[in-house]
Amino acid sequence: MHNSLVNHFxxxxxxxxxxxxxHLLQGFxxxxxxxxxxxxxxxxxxxxxxxxxxxxxxxxxNLIFLADRIDVMSAAHYGKDILHTKGEIVRSIxxxxxxxxDPEMVEAFQKSEAAESFWIALEGHHITRYTWDMGxxxxxxxxxxxxxxxxxxxxxxxxxxxxxxTAQHSTLVGRLGHYLANRYGLLEDQCDKIEIAGFLHDIGxxxxxxxxxx
Length: 214
Prior knowledge:
The chain is mostly helical. Helix content is 66%, strand content 0%. The protein folds into 2 domains: 2-134, no CATH class; 145-213, no CATH class. The longest helix has 20 residues, at 55-74.
């Protein structure tokens, strides 16, 4: 699936990971408003615009699709020759205006990409800094222990899919940790926290994987 995502603009089973993303998000209340856009984020605009979705959901889905394809076409050039290659990427995106992408989105992209900083800011260390800065914003909504467990399960699924040898590994470690903690006589909230730690114990693999790919 990953090879298809990064090597083909479109392919027959492109919606498979959309369905997986939708399944992971729809049951997690803090993020379930993104489930529908994720489900349709590989649906071409000429089809998407006629579906029975809200205008906001259609725009969000198509924006994800647009950003996804821009990044895929740019990834091999980050840190190398992105400023020399950007013209080819822009021409490709523009050629899909009206078919795969909302023309208004493409127009907004063309206005944004005119600045060199747009392309430079897409490189890995800038994204890391951006997400770090986002973490400094205070949130007034705290996750319950149940929601934290749901979120940890989403992350554990992502981690385990990075290798064919680790399917459900993190989930099983979490479940086993909860069972052992319960048998040891710990309180239920402590058992839940150990279960969450088990779900997340391999999360560092995501960073190691990213470093390997770059």
